[in-house]
Each structure stands twice: as C-alpha cells, then as structure tokens.
Amino acid sequence: MENVTDRLSNPFGMTYPCERPVPGFGDANAHFHVVGDHPGVHGGAASGVPFTDCPAAARLQRALAAGGLLVGTGTPPEVAGTFLSYLYPCADDAPTDGDYAAVEPQFDAELRAITAHVLLPVGERATAHVLETYTPHSVPDDPESLHATESRGGGFLVVPVADPAEWTDGQERQLVESLRELQRTDYRRAADLGRFSADESPYFVR
C-alpha cells in the first residue's frame, strides 16, 4: 500500500498533548525511518523539524546524507525515501516516563502507517524502545555495541545508531559505510499474498 500525500511535516495529521510539537517529517512512503528521543536531546524545538537546530543533529544529518538517506542537509533536510520522528515529539525539557507513555499510541500509529523497511533508532532510549517493541531482541548491557549493526525481527530490519553527540570519528564512518552497504542489499521486507487471489498474481505487502 502507498500513502498518497505530499505533506512532509506531520503527513497523517497527528495531534499531540503539547503546545510546541515537533512532528514527524519526511517521505510518507519511506524505506528508512529514523527515530530519535525528543527535541531536548536531538533538536528541532525552534524549527519544528526533527534532528535540526543543534550540533549533534547536524552531524547525524551529514552522516545520513553521506550514507545515501538524505538528498541534502539543512533545516529542513531534503528527504527522499526517509522519515524522521521522535518517541516524544514535544519541546519539553525533561519528559517523564508518563509523558512518553501518553504519546506512544501516536508514535506507534505513525510508524506503522509509514511502514518503513528499516528502523534506525538514535540513542539509548530510542534503541531500547524499538528493539523491545518491534523485535524479539533484548537490549544488551552495552547498547553502543549495536551501533550501525543489523538486527532482524518483527517485520523490520533495525539498525541502531549511537547518540551522535558522543560519536567518535570511527563511529561516524562506521554508520556511513553500513548505510551504503545496506542499500546494496535487498533490505526490503515484504510478503507475497498473491497465492490468496483468484488469479494468483503477485501481490506484495509489508
């Protein structure tokens, strides 16, 4: 199924319990979904666009562009096949566990509407949430060891990303190389339901 919309910011019209939301931004038919923590960590409170307005966000954008997931960097970035969003999209300084829980239904609905093939959680909290919610994998004692590696399960390919504010130069190169290599493979997850149709024509769905 293909989403028909030309809206880049909040393409599904999600509503949030706050006055300053930083909603999801990007291609509603993305193959890659980059998931951050919240604007206070990964930026965007001023611009209203995830992963902007701070040095860590700029560094992540550069790596995503070098890895082929962004056409251009900036505020907003130029996207094609990529979607950016936060677990907690409100521009609050320190969201509580209850705050995250309150917006989880919207986050989950948007993630499943995008139906990207690859999830890229950024930072420890996003990585834990994505692994525990959308895969059978548990979070290791050293989450940074998962940086730029692949975990399959639950219909998604997950590539965790360490927090860009703490990257070494080696981690940045590792992510870029991993993303380039990933796109040289058949990373798409789809099922052929054609066997259930009258003429058995191929019908692929996520």
TrEMBL record:
<keyword id="KW-0408">Iron</keyword>
<keyword id="KW-0227">DNA damage</keyword>
<dbReference type="GO" id="GO:0097506">
    <property type="term" value="F:deaminated base DNA N-glycosylase activity"/>
</dbReference>
<dbReference type="InterPro" id="IPR036895">
    <property type="entry name" value="Uracil-DNA_glycosylase-like_sf"/>
</dbReference>
<dbReference type="GO" id="GO:0051539">
    <property type="term" value="F:4 iron, 4 sulfur cluster binding"/>
</dbReference>
<protein>
    <submittedName>
        <fullName>Uracil-DNA glycosylase</fullName>
    </submittedName>
</protein>
<keyword id="KW-0234">DNA repair</keyword>
<dbReference type="Pfam" id="PF03167">
    <property type="entry name" value="UDG"/>
</dbReference>
<dbReference type="InterPro" id="IPR051536">
    <property type="entry name" value="UDG_Type-4/5"/>
</dbReference>
<keyword id="KW-0378">Hydrolase</keyword>
<dbReference type="GO" id="GO:0046872">
    <property type="term" value="F:metal ion binding"/>
</dbReference>
<keyword id="KW-0479">Metal-binding</keyword>
<dbReference type="InterPro" id="IPR005122">
    <property type="entry name" value="Uracil-DNA_glycosylase-like"/>
</dbReference>
<keyword id="KW-0411">Iron-sulfur</keyword>
<feature type="domain" description="Uracil-DNA glycosylase-like">
    <location>
        <begin position="23"/>
        <end position="165"/>
    </location>
</feature>
<dbReference type="GO" id="GO:0006281">
    <property type="term" value="P:DNA repair"/>
</dbReference>
<keyword id="KW-0004">4Fe-4S</keyword>
